[in-house]
Structure formats: C-alpha cells, structure tokens
Amino acid sequence: MKPIGVFDSGVGGLTVIRELIHQLPCEDIVYFGDTARVPYGIKSKETVIRFSMENILFLLKQEVKLICVACNTASSLAIPAIKNHFKVPIVGVISPGVREAVYATQNKRIGVIGTKGTIKSRAYELEIKQLDPKIKVTTAACPLFVPLVEEGWLSGDVVMAVVKTYLKPLKDAGVDTVILGCTHYPLLRSLIEQVMCKDVTLIDSAKQVAIEVKKILANEGLLNKGHKGKQKFYVSDNPEWFSGLAARFLGRPIKDAKKMSLV
Ligand code: DGL
Question: Cβ(230)–Cβ(254) under 8 Å?
C-alpha cells in the first residue's frame, strides 16, 4: 500500500495533513517540510520551482502514489511548470479553493490573500476568471501573517492592526468571499472573520484539497480500505522547531519528525 506524499515549505502544510487524515483515515501519508529553506513566499519563481522539484523527487523515493502540494506559493509558482513532468498525480491547493470560492460568492466579488509570491503569480485570479470572467477579484499580499502565526501571535492589538491594514482593500471592494491562500492563514481565521464581518465566507482550501485527493485516488482505484493510516514526517532542518509548532497546525504534537538532507 503506497502512501500519499505531501510537501510544504515548512510547518504550514500540516493544516492540509489534518484534513487529509480526517477525510482519508485509511491512507498512509509521508510529509516533507522544507524547514531549511522556508519561507517560499518571498523567493523567486525559479527558486520555488527548483525547491519543489527537489521535494517531489524526495517524495517519489518514498514511493508515493500521489503528491499533494500543500504550499500555496509552490502550488502557484511551480505546479503549472512541473505538473506534466511526473507520472503520479500532483494536486495543488489553488484549483480546489477557487472552485469553492466561485461556488460560494453571491455578489461575484472574491478577495484573495496570500504570500507575496502567490499574489504576484496571479494564479488564483487567473483561475477564478477562467471559471467566471465576470467575477471581480481583489488580492492582497499579507507577508507578516506567516511570522505572526509561527510566533503564536494569534490575537491581540498588534496582530489585529496588521489584519485590519492588510484586509482594507478587500473590505473597500465589498468582497463576500475570501480565499485564505496560504497554509498559515486558517489560524488567523477568527480575527479575519471579525474584521471582514460575519456574512463574508472564508475559504480554507484544505477541505476541498482532501476531497480532490480522495476523488483522484478513487478514480484510479488507489484508495486504501480497512487499514489505520500512519503518518511519517520529514524535514530538511530543525525537527525540534517543527515538532514544537506542529501542535498548533495539526492539533496534536509530533514527536518523531526526521531530518533529511535533499542533496
Ligand atoms: N506555505 C507557504 C504558503 O502557503 C507559506 C510559508 C512560506 O512563505 O513558505 O504559501
């Protein structure tokens, strides 16, 4: 029984793992967090493509049957360039989130927040427009959110001021749906909700990604049954840091993350 492979730039992809475990409890999962080279959100497209290729090659060595790119920045910048190079299905987080947002919006105004790399790539915007050209998309890069979340600043005046500042263009545009286009943003959900008001729908693509993974595995006859899925965690640096943050992202601590060198 082959595992599902998942990679992220670091710890954030555990929000996707959480949902995969929930929806696919019989699947084994191998996770790779590129903690030596995080963050990807401020790196160039060429670099993110190279890192993503290396991460995929590592996962292929673990004989995975499907690769899920949990990182929004890697999904935006690398997947379009590398997807056709591999035989295993590669699932990113952009399309599932876009489909849900296009379905959810009533006033055809969608907001997208993400890292600088994700926003600059216009990946979300272009996919939304492909599904419905009439939708108006307002985007905002929120580069301080990742360090705030990793430092555990999930509430308080400072973080509230940052959230308000970043979300102002989305509020001004009157969006009724916001895509949380970064692994870390679901942890700021309640603050984002407070700032955007209750009737705005927040889209966390993790759920939709897990649905998509399940669908692909079912179509290919690769779904596991009657087996209790296990997870293995690998990182490129600092497993202690990763393990310490894991509880916040995964909802439980990880004790056995292993350090792996990619080169
Ligand atoms: N995982 C990244 C993302 O979802 C956020 C952290 C980073 O910048 O590497 O875009």
Answer: no
Structure tokens of 93? 């987080």
More confident residue, 9 or 261: 9
- Whole-angstrom CA distances from 78 to 26, 50, 51, 81 are 29, 8, 9, 5
Cα 203 from Cα 112, distance rounded (Å):
9
Whether a cis peptide bond, with omega within 30° of 0, leads into 147 is: no
d(C-alpha 231, C-alpha 135), whole Å: 39
* Residue 141 β-bridge partners: 114
Ligand 1: centre distance to CA 225 (Å): 32
Residue 83 has a pLDDT of 87
CA–CA separation, 98 vs 172, rounded Å? 21
Long-range CB contacts for residues 86-93, cutoff 8 Å, separation at least 24: 86/56, 86/60, 88/5, 88/60, 88/64, 89/216, 89/220, 90/56, 90/66, 91/66, 91/67, 91/209, 91/212, 91/213, 91/216, 92/68, 93/16, 93/69, 93/181, 93/205, 93/206, 93/209
| Residue from 72, 124, 236 to probe ligand 1 pocket by mutation (most atoms less than 8 Å from CB) | 72
Q: What is the pLDDT of residues 61-118, one digit of tens each?
A: 999 999 999 999 999 999 999 988 999 999 999 999 999 999 999 999 999 999 999 9
pTM confidence score = 0.96
- Say how far apart CA 3 and CA 146 lie, in whole Å: 29
* Interval between CA 131 and ligand 1 midpoint (Å): 25
The pLDDT of residue 263: 67
C-beta of 206 in contact with ligand 1 (< 6 A): no
